Amino acid sequence: MKSALSIAGSDPTGGAGMQADLQTFALHGVRGAGIVSALTIQDSVRVHSVLPVFPSVVLDQIRTLLADATPDVIKIGMLATDDVARNVVLGLQSVRGKVPIVIDPVLEASDGTPLLERRAWPALHELIRGCHLVTPNLNEAERLSDIDCSRKKDCEKAADFFIHELGAGAVLLKGGHRSGSPDDLLALGGGSETRFIWLEGERIESGSVHGTGCALASSVAAGLAQGRPMEDAVQRARTFVREGISTSAQFGQGARFLGFPGDVS
Fold it and tell me: For labelling, which of 50, 109, 121, 191 has a CA lying 20 to 30 Å from the CA of 44?
C-alpha cells in the first residue's frame, strides 16, 4: 500500500485539515500518516481560535517519522506560524527532491480568520521551491504573487510567478471563488515556458461547503503517491471533490460538509 504524510492543522469537525486529509487518503486506498501543526477550536460556523503546536515538537516528529519510513507523498496544509513553518522546512530537508510534495497554501479560513501569519510567507516560499504542486485559490494566488487574478490571462501570470519565481513544479489555481464559470488553471513547468491547461468547471449551487481545498489537494497527493501523472491526478481529484460537493450535507448550523462514497448520509 502507498502512503501519504499530511502536515496540517487539526479540525475537530472533521471537515477540513488533518482529519479531512486522512479521510481522503483512505478513500483513495492510500495509507495516511499525520503531523499536526496547530490545534483549532472551530465549528461549522467559524474558527474561534488557533493554537500552534510547539515548533520543536513538529520538527522532532517529522525527523523521527522520516528516519523510520519515507512516505510516497507529502501534503502540507495550514502551518499557522513562522516558527512552525520554518521547522517544517528544516524537517523536510532530507526528502526534498526525493518525495513529491503538494502544498495547499492556507492563508485564512473561509470566515476570514488568519491561519498563517504574514511573517511566515518567506518560509512558505521556501517550501514551495521544488514542490511538485501548489494549489492556491484565487485570493491566495493574488496575495502571494501580488497579481490581480480577475482575468484569465492574469491568472496565467500568477501561476507563472509560482513556477518561475517561487520554483514550484506545477500550479493548480482554483477558480471556485471566481464570479461566473469556476474554471481551474493547471500550469505545468519543467521547461523554458509554462504550459497552461484550463479545466472547465461547473457551478454547483449547494451553498458554502467546508474543506473542499483540503480534499482537492490531498486527493491529488494520493494520486501522485500511486504514480499517476499530474494531469490525471488533478482531473481525478476534481471529479472526487465535485461529487463530494454535489452530495454535501448539513452537519451543524454553518457550512455544509462534503459527502463521499462510504459516508452514512
Answer: 121
Element (H, E) at 4: strand 3-10
Work out the mean pLDDT of the chain and round it to a whole number: 93
The share of the chain scoring above pLDDT 70, in percent, equals: 97
Residue 59 in any domain: the answer is: yes
Asked if residue 151 is part of any domain, the answer here is yes
Pair type for strands 31-42 and 47-52:
antiparallel
Residues 139, 163 contacting (CB under 8 angstroms): no
Burial environment of residue 239 by CB neighbours within 10 A (0 to 12, 13 to 18, 19 or more): exposed
d(C-alpha 6, C-alpha 245), whole Å: 22
Does residue 148 lie within any of the structural domains? yes
Task: Check which CATH number belongs to the domain holding 103 and give it.
Answer: 3.40.1190.20
Beta bridge partners of 51: 39
| Residue 102, domain extent | 3-251
Task: Identify the CA nearest to 143 among candidates 119, 173, 107, 98.
Answer: 107
Count structural domains, the chain: 1
14-22 mean pLDDT: 96
Does 258 reside within a domain? no
C-alpha grid cell, residue 248: 454535501
The model's pLDDT over 222-255, given as tens digits with 9 standing for 90+, comes to 999 999 999 999 999 999 999 999 999 988 899 9
CA distance 156 to 160: 6
CA 195 remoteness from chain centre: 21
Lowest mean pLDDT among 57-61, 78-82, 90-94, 200-204: 200-204
For the whole model, what pTM was predicted? Answer: 0.95
Q: How many residues does the chain have?
A: 265
Residue given cell 482531473 in the structure block: 235
Q: Taking each helix axis from N to C terminus, what angle separates 82-91 and 55-68, rounded to the nearest 10 degrees?
A: 20
